[in-house]
Haloacid dehalogenase-like hydrolase (Streptomyces atriruber), 223 residues
Amino acid sequence: MGKLLRGAHIVWDWNGTLLHDIHAVIEATNASFAELGLEAITLERYRDLYCVPIPRFYERLMGRLPTDAEWRVMDTVFHKHYWARAEGCGLAEGASELLAARRADGRTQSLLSLAPHEQLVPIVRRHGIHEYFVRIDGRTDESHAGKAERMVRHLEAFDEPLDVGRVVVIGDAVDDAVAAVHVGAQAVLYTGGSHSRASLELAGVPVVDSLADAVDVAERLVA
């Protein structure tokens, strides 16, 4: 297994973590809400209410779960607006340098996202960071469940087994921590994305304000 056991293996989240897209998300959310007859939402309210699976987020906004038909429309309309804006989003501060430094130091890292795989891989490549990951996995089905079972499949897909005790998930959502716990890994949550700090702290894992701090904490967790 060699270098796979050196330091923490970090499983990175994409949207709201490595990709600084929260403002594109809010703009797309409000553009889709306008089409759907819902009131606009502020960044603060979004961060307070956001949760996975996403239909539960809409339940918090609407006071009821959307029907399957309503959800399909909501999902389609949101993604129409989001992907029109995603190309203009940059990486989070220091993300590329952090990834490169870890790769150069023999650390391993992978990427697991709920973004559609066929759209995730090209945008990661366009940012010039794909070579820093030993594996990249996006969503390949229509399910909008969280990451827990996807994390199982992600870790099982490695050519050489990972010591789960050295795996740390870094993301911007409570769901990232839930997925980590599901596989016996640890998690560090980052405040630059979808959740407020108060929401993230409910997960009971370290919460940080920068990716550099997230990496530092991840290494300490497995030291």
